[in-house]
Specification:
Its EC number is 4.2.1.10. The protein contains five helices and five strands. The chain is 39% helix and 19% strand. The protein has a single domain, classed as Rossmann fold, CATH 3.40.50.9100.
């Protein structure tokens, strides 16, 4: 059975309590349950992770790359949080490990502060889901599955 990694960056552990007017009331545990349910519909498993540390996210991308090459993983649905706008290291990890990534953002980053309008992840993503709330994770999974299966 193949796996999809759902990877979450900094502060997403605060989902449901941090700025609910922007990010909603669902928790990261709620998102994980949604992702597990969607994966099961497709006969897949989910490896769900969150880290506030850039290096841990880079390591997870590297690990995903190895699993993809071994035929054990389909790809990654990735909400890089604020690292979207700052991390060349994550961009390089995705490209270097040759990982198909769907970039996900809960809020519409283009309707927010100007510094959120640029993404270092988008140029190496196979798809992007922005502003659809936590449902964006499910949409990202569906897109990844359709694109790569």
């Amino acid at each position: 059975m193949s796996t999809i990694m759902v990877l979450n960056g900094p502060n997403l552990n605060l989902l449901g309590q941090r700025e609910p007017q922007t990010y909603g009331h669902e928790t990261l545990a709620d998102v994980e349950a949604m992702c597990q349910e969607e994966a099961a519909k497709h006969g897949l498993k989910v490896d769900f992770r969150q880290s506030n540390h850039e290096g841990a996210l880079v390591d997870a991308i590297h690990e995903a790359g190895q699993l993809i090459k071994a035929g054990k993983m389909l790809g990654v649905v990735f909400n890089p949080g604020a690292y979207t706008h700052t991390s060349i290291a994550l961009h390089d990890a995705i490209k270097g490990a040759e990982v198909p990534v769907v970039e996900v953002h809960i809020s519409n980053v283009h309707a927010r502060e100007a510094f959120r309008h640029h993404s270092f992840i988008s140029p190496c993503a196979v798809g992007i889901v922005i502003g659809m709330g936590v449902q964006g994770y499910v949409l990202g999974m569906q897109g990844l599955i359709k694109k790569l299966s």
